[in-house]
Amino acid sequence: MHNEPHIDVSSPDQAFRAEVAQWMATHLTGKFACLRHRGGAGDEDAYPELRKEWAQLLARDGWNCVGWPEQYGGRGLSVARQIIFHEEYARAGGPGHMGHLGETLLGPTLIAYGSEEQKRRFLPGIVAGTEYWCQGYSEPGAGSDLANVQTRARRDPASGEWIIDGQKVWTSLAHESQWIFVVARCEPGSRGHAGLIFLLVPLAQPGVEVRPIRQITGSCEFNEVFFDGARTGAQNVVGAPGQGWKVAMALLGFERGLSWIGMQTHFEHQLALICKAARESGSDRDPAIRARIGQAWMGLKVMHYNTLRTLSGGDDGSLSREAYIIKYYWSNWHRDLGKLAMDAMGADGDILIDDFSRTRLQQVFLFSRSDTIVAGTNEIQLNIIAERALGMPREARPQTQEKAAP
């Protein structure tokens, strides 16, 4: 195997890497030591209050929203330095960000599409780690098919507020959030991409109910959110009524890219745990297991370098062609890694004991079963790759929906 490209230790970027690593080594200690490698996918309900305190510590020293422009509270770091930050943060075992959805999704969307009033109101709380957001996209009948949302928003002619009725599902950390961004249908009789609105909605109000969904891992990071006459002000519409699809798709575009560099470093840690488990169980002497570990390592490198290729997207959430394959690739790779984790542990993997390494690998196996479903199923992802990245003819759809599509 070839070594990673050498970087001159005297380079300014390498000095910045050392600065990040030193900060993490100094601060991810004491009461925060228990947060190492916690709070990621499948483990997001771990230590929520302490992770909020950690977020505020990051904010104090300027490590939240490092890629945002300085005028909105960020550091304005170059892409290269953002990559370094995410790599070193994950390598040190930095916990999952409680404010991930605000920092990587909503914040950049407001910077690109929000009003000045919205930027002044909402961006400072995201940077400071004091206001948390969740995502109101999926519904029981509109998971991967987001254009089928049925949650309704109607304007109150007396107050000008928007009144919301409907249900959202698989809403990560809704029980820890103060706000939710919601895609709803604001034009009666509209279908598909037309007639949608993108709303910023406070959760602490009458007409909003959050119900936890207990998963096979035992955690409850996901929720259902029910709206029954919930309200939000006219000033909380991002874009204009009817332009919700455009804003919603831009937001998903911001999801792909730099934050996934850190995710892949967490994957690297999981692979290291698998190697350790294989040595302990003796399964590392099995040629098939050794081959699968090698394939996982190579797949992780392919994923990393392709992600670096995608960082040429626009500031408006638009994507390069290479970016369209990332979700399909990593979700299938990670599902296979979960299977490898159980096989590497052998029979011991079927036993629940108080051992973090084993428990974490069991979580990886259980949670990764959902990876090819969340954020668009494999089938939807293949359609997106074919139609948007390769320009192939659209899949045949019912005539009523075809007319509604842009």
UniProtKB/TrEMBL annotation:
InterPro entries cross-referenced by the UniProt entry: Acyl-CoA_Oxase/DH_mid-dom, Acyl-CoA_Oxase/DH_mid-dom_sf, AcylCo_DH-like_C, AcylCo_DH/oxidase_C, AcylCoA_DH/ox_N, AcylCoA_DH/ox_N_sf, AcylCoA_DH/oxidase_NM_dom_sf, Mycobact_Acyl-CoA_DH
Domain Acyl-CoA dehydrogenase/oxidase C-terminal: residue ranges: 242-389
Entry's Gene Ontology cellular component terms: plasma membrane
Keywords linked to the UniProt accession: FAD, Flavoprotein, Oxidoreductase
MF terms (GO), sorted A to Z: flavin adenine dinucleotide binding; oxidoreductase activity, acting on the CH-CH group of donors
Domain Acyl-CoA oxidase/dehydrogenase middle residues, every copy: 134-228
Presence of keyword Metal-binding: no
Cofactor requirement: FAD
Chain ranges of the Acyl-CoA dehydrogenase/oxidase N-terminal domain: 14-129
Gene3D superfamilies on file: Acyl-CoA dehydrogenase/oxidase, N-terminal domain, Butyryl-CoA Dehydrogenase, subunit A, domain 2, Butyryl-CoA Dehydrogenase, subunit A, domain 3
Similarity comment: Belongs to the acyl-CoA dehydrogenase family.
Protein name as annotated: Acyl-CoA dehydrogenase
Species of origin: Pseudoduganella namucuonensis
